[in-house]
Design a protein that fits this description.
A: about 300 residues; MetI-like fold; B: about 280 residues; mainly alpha
Chain lengths: ~300, ~280
């Protein structure tokens, strides 16, 4: 019997497909349609607080025009993308050596170490942010340590009592890196673990230095892992709402805060929708590029 | 196996220190007698006691627990159905659409999921009169929706690594499809179903952003309460709460991973024994 007819009693298979399908249509597909539609509406003082234009073309592009002309929105997008990019690069710089190291430790140790990477992910996200708030505050041992190191390095005239870390963009990046590091390490590890060791050894035998082997063999081959991990960090980091609300500079908000503000405080559903659509487009484009890259790589591999 | 260079070893040590230093600091300061969170004032368990007297925290914890148990269970059922449909049913109409929809919440920032789900609820209230007020039911729907996508991902990856030949053999020998499903497919993927449920449970228990959009007045989950409290500043009872959660999670994850690996090993042995016995 072929897998195509694996579960051929109509009623049963229809139920198994239909139930999750209906759920996904109503609660995943429909909301996205609503947001997309509302981004072309105009805000009014009524309930619900939006309407579509009464005459042709029925759709208004005012929201998008505001998005590209008002410096608040442009700045929010710039800050978000900047923070997310820096955080992704830092995650890669910290995560890559860790992932590579994990492939080279004995098997028994490897299991425990991998578990230790995943464990913080299972604990509360909020509490991990909270733990850093305690550490970054001006009176904490961590801040004193950093200040001490700084004061040793710089001349006496520049000495400071403490470093202001909390409520800065730096704090946001720092905590984002901390929170999303496992998302970078795990796909990288999965990719590096599958690499054929004989390639390294061959390069070594042919006289390459370890650094050269890494740059010529390991790094290019681990590109899919780097991209997968990068996207897993970049996308949530760009839309982050909680971390900037707790440790960030409130006068320089990221996109997530702007969306939540337009929606909650200003009751401007169309504008909130337009910003959401813009964010979605900006984040989905690299994803689509990646899928194309991957399918091309796979096609190249089978040739 | 290649040797671990000194550079990699140093980076790994630093990395683990980075991952665990704040958590350890949190646990240490939860036993601090002083009200100031950053200055050590002697050992004490007073904050743990305060935690269990705080009815606000206990109510929020109870709501979170109920929500996570219900949403994880329903999400596991729906997600497992979707996973079986995607991997075992062959091509059916709209299959690409289903797999696309399932991955969407996984790649979208949570803010967007939150805003779009809230807009759906607001418009539904306008169109069909439900939900008149946001509360447990809207939270439940939102949590089921995002948990379901994680469950489906876990189930599809496990199911596609399992050979269909046993299921096909049972079908050839005349078993009804639902019998194959009940007696072979579900038992074989049961460890994956358990880990998917655990994942759904913890994700629901931990969610802040989507909850903040879909909850109503009076429905504060534990993360919502912690978020509101932390915005006002760091307090020692949150340290105690955090340490408790870390302890429960560490024990739970370790135990469940032991159970899951054991049952998976046993099943593999049984399958191998069955195959060997057939010769």
């Amino acid at each position: 019997m072929k897998p195509a007819s694996w579960f051929d009693r109509r009623g049963w298979s229809d139920l198994i497909i239909g139930l999750p399908y209906a759920w996904a249509i109503v609660f995943i597909f429909l909301p996205i349609c609503i947001v997309s539609a509302l981004s072309f509406a105009v805000p009014i003082l009524n309930s619900p607080p939006y309407e579509f234009l009464k005459t042709w073309p029925y759709l208004s592009f005012d929201n998008f025009q505001r998005l590209f002309s008002d410096s608040i929105y442009i700045r929010a997008f710039a800050v978000s993308l900047f923070n997310a990019s820096i955080a992704t690069v830092l995650c890669l710089l910290i995560g890559y050596p860790m992932a590579l190291g994990l492939t080279r430790v004995p098997k028994a140790v490897n299991r425990v170490l991998l578990m230790m990477i995943v464990l913080p992910f299972w604990t509360s996200f909020l509490l991990r942010v909270y733990a850093w708030i305690g550490l970054m505050g001006n009176n904490s041992w961590f801040n004193h340590l950093l200040t001490g190191l700084y004061n040793v390095v710089v001349p006496q005239a520049w000495h400071i009592a403490n470093i202001q870390i909390m409520y800065t963009n730096f704090a946001v990046i720092f905590v984002v890196v901390y929170s999303y590091l496992p998302f970078m390490i795990l796909p990288l590890y999965a990719n590096l673990e599958k690499l054929d060791r004989t390639l390294d050894e061959a390069a070594m035998d042919l006289g390459s230095r370890p650094v050269q082997v890494f740059l010529d063999v390991t790094l290019p081959l681990s590109m899919p892992g780097i991209i997968a991990g990068g996207l897993l960090v970049f996308i949530p980091a760009a839309g982050e709402l909680v971390i900037p609300s707790l440790v960030g500079n409130q006068s320089d908000p990221m996109v997530g805060a702007i969306i939540s503000q337009e929606f909650g405080l200003n009751h401007d559903w169309p504008m909130a929708s337009a910003i959401s659509v813009a964010l979605l487009v900006i984040l989905v484009m690299p994803l689509m590029a990646y899928t194309r890259f991957q399918s091309r790589a796979e096609a190249g591999g089978t040739r | 196996m290649k040797r671990l260079s000194r550079f990699l070893l140093t980076m790994m040590c630093l990395g683990y220190v980075y991952l665990y230093a704040p958590i350890i600091s949190l646990i240490v300061f939860s036993f601090n007698k002083s009200r100031l969170v950053t200055v050590w004032g002697g050992f004490s368990t007073v904050w743990y006691g305060r935690l269990f007297e705080n009815s606000q925290i206990l109510d929020a914890a109870w709501l979170s627990l109920r929500l996570a148990l219900t949403s994880a269970t329903i999400a596991t059922i729906l997600g497992t159905m979707a996973g079986i449909a995607l991997v075992r049913f062959g091509p059916f109409r709209g299959r690409t659409m289903l797999s696309g929809l399932i991955t969407t919440p996984l790649v979208m920032p949570e803010v967007l999921t939150g805003v779009s789900t809230l807009l759906l609820f607001l418009l539904m209230a306008k169109w069909i009169g439900w939900p008149a007020r946001r509360g447990f039911s809207t939270l439940l729907i939102a949590h089921i929706t995002f948990s379901m996508t994680y469950v489906t991902t876990v189930i599809t990856s496990r199911l596609s690594s399992i050979d269909v030949s046993i299921e096909e053999a049972a079908l050839d020998l005349g078993s009804a499809p639902w019998q194959v499903l009940k007696d072979i497919t579900l038992p074989v993927i049961s460890p994956a179903i358990l880990s998917a449920w655990l994942l759904a449970f913890t994700i629901s228990l931990d969610d802040v952003v989507i909850t903040s959009f879909t909850n109503g007045p009076g429905y504060n989950t534990l993360p919502m309460l912690v978020w509101a409290k932390v915005r006002l500043g760091v307090t020692p009872d949150i340290n105690a709460l955090g340490s408790l959660i870390v302890a429960v999670v560490a024990i739970g994850v370790t135990l469940s991973s032991i159970i899951i690996t054991r049952s998976e090993r046993r099943r593999e042995r049984e399958i191998q024994a069955a195959l060997a016995g057939g010769h």
